[in-house]
Amino acid sequence: MNAPADSADVRRRNLGLVLRYLDAHGPCARTEVAVGTGLVHATVTALVAELIDRGLVAEAGSVPSAGRGRPRRLLRLVPERVVVLAAQVSLESVHVMAADFQGHVLHRESAPHHAPYGDPRALAAVIGCVVRSAEAAVRDATPHAHLAQLTVAMAGPVVGPAHLVAAAIDFGWHNTDLRALVAVELPLLDCPVDVVNDANMAALAEYHALAADGVEHPDTVAFIKADTGVGGGLLVNGRVHSGSHGMAGEIGHLPIALDGPDCRCGTRGCLATYIGPEPLIHAAGLDAVAESEGGEAALAELDRRLRAGDPDAVDALEAAGHALGAAVLGVSGVTDAGEIILGGYLATWASWLRAGLDARLAGRRALAPDMQPAITFGVLGGEATLRGAFQTCRDALLDDPTSVPALPRTPVTVPSR
Predict the structure, then answer these.
(1) DSSP 8-state code for residue 27
(2) What is the rounded CA–CA span in Å between residue 103 and residue 105?
(3) How far apart are CA 41 and CA 62, in angstroms?
(4) Tell me, which fold does domain 3-77 have in CATH?
């Protein structure tokens, strides 16, 4: 009785296998796809025909055969067939990116949200407004594209099949169905809406970007980022491991001092109270800038002062490096991660963090140098979260190409006699 479902699952898997091969190796011929995937040629021919019907694959000309046979017809992906929308919520703004299947950015937009503390509906309304604008721009530019997914990334663990935001500490709400609130604001959006953890998305994106640059990752990789907040992720064999409650890798609220500053999460001495944007802005003497112009402007001024050699800014980053080192020791001791990737301004300001970081790690490195994680720095900066959200959607489509509907068939006109 399960044969039809099993057959459909096998077909989806095989379609994904062919699409992934073309993504990695195309343009190439059907015979190459058959050899590369291990599928028989007749099966590949049928699967390719379906992918062409769905607009995901197209013929790309032909090349001569190696022997005397007919020329080989090449196949290529059609990246403009699919568009993904990714949104990122920061403390002050909502950022949206629309990209095609190969990651070519079609549209970008940002807007301040001014969301009142404790009011997720106000934030959802701004997300809806920015997404509607992005969708309209995409529809104008690519009217025949399939809108595959809207993924909203924000701070806080996201749990359960409903993808509830379990604790958005910086926004003052918990166990919130942000996906449902956004869907209410977008009743005409004809695609699934998902909510994900922003740091997990950044971790995924930096992992792939570094791999593309030649970094060979170990099986367990931890990620720590700081930008508009402090977060992290844990990757096992290249996949996000979120733990039992969506909390794996939530490094920002790892206590590193028993008598440290109070944290809004309910405890004291969390990493975020040392290397988060507000503590760094305060330590560098930039509170007045933050109050008058906002946190993002204050961080930009901190960057300027660091590069100018301002002693207060440099001291603030060295102290942050010590705190970061304490967190690295804790994470590596619990996870035995072979690599720790630092992202956000932890990568941008690596030169100023390194003195404190190395001083904190020196004792352990001297005792067991072969057992310490490699420290690498991310390369995507502020792009990481949106790129990770895009990558997640793209991977889902590669796993199941049947989520893209077939193209409408052009009616055949029969000439009258």
Answers:
(1) S
(2) 6
(3) 18
(4) Arc Repressor Mutant, subunit A (1.10.10)
Residues of the chain with CATH 1.10.10.10: 3-77
pLDDT beneath 70, residues of the chain = 1-5, 65-69, 410-417
Going by the DSSP 8-state scheme, the letter that residue 407 receives in this structure is: P
Other Cβ atoms within 10 Å of 297 Cβ, number: 15
At residue 274, the pLDDT reads: 96
What is the amino acid identity at position 298? A
List CB contacts of 323: < 8 A, sequence separation 6 or more.
256, 271, 274, 275, 356
Name the token pair of 47.
């699967």
Amino acid at position 329, single letter = L
Tell me how far apart the alpha carbons of residues 319 and 325 are, in angstroms, rounded to a whole number: 10
Angle, helices 384-399 vs 198-212, to 10°: value is: 80
CATH match of 82-197 with 3.40.630.190: no
Q: Which of 74, 85, 78 is CA-nearest to residue 144?
A: 78
To the question of domain 214-378 being in CATH 3.30.420.40, the answer is yes
The pLDDT tens digits of the residues spanning 270-296 come to 999 999 999 999 999 999 999 999 888
| Helix-strand-coil split of the chain, %, nearest 5 | 45, 25, 30
Looking at residue 413, its pLDDT comes to 57
Supply the pLDDT for residue 61: 81
